[in-house]
Amino acid sequence: MARIDSKVIFLTTSPRTPSKMIPEIQLLSEHFSGLRWNTDNQRAFMDLLKEENFFNGEGANDPAFSARDRINRGPKSLGFVILSPVIALTPAGRELIDAPRKEEIFLRQLLKFQVPSPFHRPTANSAEFWVKPYLEIFRLVRHFGSLKFDELVMFGLQLVDYRQFDQIVSKIDAFRIAKAQNEGNYRRFKAEYLDAELRLIYENDIIAGNTRTRETEDASISKFLKTKASNMRDYADACVRYLRATGLVNISHLGKSISIVPEKTAEVDYFLANTDRNPVFIDNEASYTIYLGNTQLPLLLTDNRELLLERLAAEFPEIAIPLGVNLPELKELLSNARESRKEQFISEQVSAIKDYRLFDDINTTFSQILDNDLYDTPLMLEWNTWRAMTMLDGGNIKANLKFDDFGQPMSTAQGNMADIQCDYEEFGLTVEVTMQSGQRQYETEGESVTRHLAKYKRENNKPAYCLFIAPNINESVIAHFYGLHKLHIAYYGGTSTIVPLPLRVFLKMIEDSHNAAYVPEPRHIQRFFEHSNELAAATNSEVEWYTGITEAALNWLFQDRQNIS
CA-CA 20 to 30 A from 451: which of 73, 257, 313, 355? Predict the structure, then answer.
């Protein structure tokens, strides 16, 4: 049982992307079902997890703690696993693994998550919780039509008791009025407003002098409030990601706001009207565990045959629905129709990209990424790089990120494969992107990038290269990838041709593709990577190699332009 010592809404933040818990609970079930969740088995779980392609972390400092962090938080809190007396998947956990579409499963579990519960007990110093947090945030978004991320941080997270809903609405209304009246710098206005809210939320702690945060001896009020503000941003970010996993919300990355998908408003209105807002089974862990793992609760619009028929007719009027079709068949019909619509949207987007109709939009999005103007920058970098590679040259370009029902980016690649895979028939190319910088870039990306390239080579049995893109490239990454050009490692399928490029250099390659008097072909891409191999063989240091390959990237189509002229 976890003790909650929070003045704002408590939400699960691990894993950061909810879909990443799916392969992890499957691994847990396959190897540890029926065993006790003790320190030895937690360490053994991490040893197995570190060998999996879908795992990007290390869990090296305290493997048992890392295991508990991954399983006790999201998977247990949302009712996918049982850890006592022995490890087991709940019916909801089994369905999460087996079902082809996960959105409805995530939705049911989020709507049941509550504080207080037998799993999460508030302390005497915490807020007086009485809330199903995700249910009420859905209600808040629906009430306003669109909720800014800043508003979720400052006010939405204060909704610790659903009976305070109208009070939180009033706070947001007042903020919007004050914002409209403020003619100064918004960043400064927001900072001052947030500071005032934080001082109200943590008034008792400040008065009592309880302002020292963990891992620091600094007890200053400014440091205390800065830490609390950072924590609230993390909670709000996790909240948005988990809501996004339901497929019911849209994200405006530029406007940094969240809204209900218009076509799914009826589904949201249904569970807002029919889901009990009161926490249940607070003092009965056995009953709560059964309730949380129940795959049929709470009831959704799609559980009502007549309403589902209306939904299908409204969303896909062109579909002829056979007489006597049962509820599961209707659900499958709706799911397949939405999947077909998504594929159509993506196909139309690819056609527009290949015709260079989206060139300006792709360039603008990269500029916004570099300026950090977008809500989920890592996701947008992955998505926009896929668009750029699709436009850059021929080939079958596949993004491994998850798209929503309307072909918009929903979450980044899970981690068991490259971010982007490019098939050029005679050879292949993996593309990896990251917003990480400094030594962290090498620690989190170095080995996984190489592993993904090796996996691609094994599965496709043909020459393959890798392009690694980040706003800035760390020196240790340059050294690592330079060495892999020269070092034959059987585990990675021999030498590894991985070229790291800053995003601005990649942008120049895109511009050259657009400005060329001809349409670039796969041979131009392969020539560039073979040139990297030649440079690596001819140079004596990673600095010399990196300088040479960067210059080659900046002029990757120059020779052909010369020949044409």
Answer: 73
Give the tokens for residue 406. Answer: 């309307």
- Tokens matching residue 72: 């006790």
Q: Are 119 and 77 in contact (CB under 8 A)?
A: yes
- The percentage of the chain sitting over the pLDDT mark of 90, rounded to a whole number, equals 69
Tell me if residue 483 falls in helix, strand or coil.
Answer: helix
Q: Tell me how far apart the 2 most distant CA atoms of the chain are, in Å.
A: 80
Instruction: Please say if the pLDDT value at position 253 is more than 90.
Output: no
| 471-487 per-position pLDDT tens digit | 999 999 999 999 999 99
- What gap in Å lies between CA 218 and CA 216, rounded to an integer? 5
- Alpha-carbon distance of 251 to 234, in angstroms, equals 17
Distance (Å, whole) CA 367 – CA 264: 32
Instruction: Please tell me what DSSP assigns to residue 471.
Output: S
pTM over 0.90: no
CA angle, 408 then 265 then 317, to 5°: 80
HEC secondary structure over 347-399? HHHHHHHHCCCCHHHHHHHHHHHHCCCCCCHHHHHHHHHHHHHHHHCCCEEEE
With a cut of 60, say whether residue 562 has pLDDT above it.
no
pLDDT tens track for 62-92: 889 989 989 999 999 999 999 999 999 999 9
Q: Mind listing the pLDDT tens digit for each residue in 179-189?
A: 999 877 888 99
Which numeric CATH code is attached to 2-293? 3.90.241
Kindly state the DSSP code that residue 6 receives in the 8-state scheme.
Answer: -
Domain ranges of the chain: 2-293, 356-564
Tokens of 241: 């990601």
Residue-wise over 253-279: b if at least 16 C-beta within 10 A, else e? beebbbbbbebbeebbebbbeebeeeb
Question: Do the Cβ atoms of 97 and 120 come closer than 8 Å?
Answer: no
Structural domain 356-564, CATH architecture: 3-Layer(aba) Sandwich (3.40)
H-state helical runs in 202-358: 203-208, 221-244, 265-274, 285-293, 305-315, 327-354
DSSP, residue by residue, 57-81: ----S-HHHHHHHHHTTHHHHTTSE
Question: Is residue 388 within 8 Å of 506, Cβ to Cβ?
Answer: yes
Spell out a b/e string for 192-220, using b for 16 or more CB atoms within 10 Å of the CB, else e.
Answer: ebbeebbeebbeeebeeeebebeeeeeee
For residue 561, name the pLDDT band (cuts at 50, 70, 90). very low
Angstrom distance (rounded) from CA 43 to CA 63: 5
Nearest residue to 155 (alpha-carbon basis) of 125, 182, 176, 131: 176
563 — pLDDT class (breaks 50, 70, 90): very low
From 275, 201, 271, select the one nearest 232 (Cα to Cα): 201
